[in-house]
Design brief:
single chain, alpha+beta, 2 domains, 13% strand
């Protein structure tokens, strides 16, 4: 996106350190050989990490405009609000809960640990 971006003809004024990409994101996915079914999850993740922000929604003949804020990194992807981290936290909590339940059952039944 950054390689194809420019600032000409923008309808809004943006700070110099930001870049705007204008185009059709579904076509970009095809150019990058990314499967179209991943479109929503990839774009949602880029927005969640605050790497891109949509400035103008495109349509069949109108390109969309995206503000490019920063490069995606593994650290941003694994950040505190990461879906992967949320699943891991949930599984860890479930494991702790089960360990407590087993301990209570063992104590009630007089089973030595």
């Amino acid at each position: 996106m950054r390689a194809q971006s420019n600032r000409d003809g923008l309808e809004v004024d943006i700070p110099q350190d930001f870049t705007v990409w204008e185009g059709f994101t579904t076509r970009l996915f095809k150019e990058l050989n990314l499967a179209v079914p991943y479109y929503t999850s990839v774009m949602n993740e880029l927005q969640r990490m605050d790497c891109v922000r949509q400035m103008r929604r495109g349509g069949s003949t109108t390109p969309s405009q995206w503000l490019l804020l920063r490069q995606p990194t593994r650290e941003l992807f694994d950040g505190p609000d990461s879906p992967a981290r949320s699943r891991k936290d949930l599984l860890e909590q479930q494991l702790r809960d089960l360990a407590k339940r087993v301990a209570v059952l063992e104590e009630e039944r007089g089973i030595a640990q």
